[in-house]
Amino acid sequence: MSKKIRNTEVDHLFDAILTLENKEECYTFFEDVCTVNELLSISQRYEVAKMLREGKTYLDISNATGASTATISRVNRSLNYGNDGYDMVLERVLKKDE
Predict the structure, then answer these.
(1) 37 burial class (0-12, 13-18, 19+ CB within 10 angstroms)?
(2) Could you say which of 25, 64, 71, 82 would form a disulfide bridge with 20 (CB–CB 3.0 to 4.6 Å)?
(3) How many folded domains does the chain comprise?
(4) ∠85-75-79 over CA atoms, to 5°?
(5) Is the separation of the CB atoms in 49 and 86 below 8 Å?
(6) Domain-embedded: residue 76
(7) What is the pLDDT of residues 85-95, one digit of tens each?
(8) Contact (Cβ atoms closer than 8 angstroms) between residue 58 and residue 69
(9) Which of 41, 4, 1, 34 lies closest to 17 in space, CA to CA?
(10) Could you report the per-residue pLDDT of 10-46, keeping only the tens digit for each?
């Protein structure tokens, strides 16, 4: 895990996020914490990760999400060389949906 982001303030933010109990609370909190564009960018990257794991092409992903090839490439790099955070969450969501 990257030590670049580990600090007390980030710990506090994550502690706060972990108190959220449902999707509506997530909307309420994140609409206050993030700008609309920040939240849309984060959600777009998550969708890109899902589609990459489904084997979609960059063109398909770009057409479906509006993400640039640079964004798709960055997400792909995180999927292949990152901390496996996307895969951890994608697996949990898949199990939950079954």
Answers:
(1) exposed
(2) 25
(3) 2
(4) 45
(5) yes
(6) yes
(7) 999 999 999 99
(8) yes
(9) 34
(10) 999 999 999 999 999 999 999 999 999 999 999 999 9
Token pair listed for 77: 């790099």
Same domain, 27 and 54: no
**Amino acid symbol at 80:** N
Q: Which two tokens stand for residue 60?
A: 């398909």
Q: Note down the domain range covering 59.
A: 46-97
Distance CA 36, CA 71 (A): 18
Q: What is the pTM of this model?
A: 0.89
Q: Do 53 and 15 share a structural domain?
A: no
CA–CA gap between residue 53 and residue 19 (Å, rounded): 29
The answer to whether 52 touches 75, Cβ cutoff 8 Å, is: yes
CB under 8 Å to 47, separation ≥6 — which residues?
64, 65, 67
Q: Same structural domain for residues 56 and 29?
A: no
The total number of residues written for the chain in this structure: 98
Rounded distance between C-alpha atoms, residue 53 and residue 80, angstroms? 10
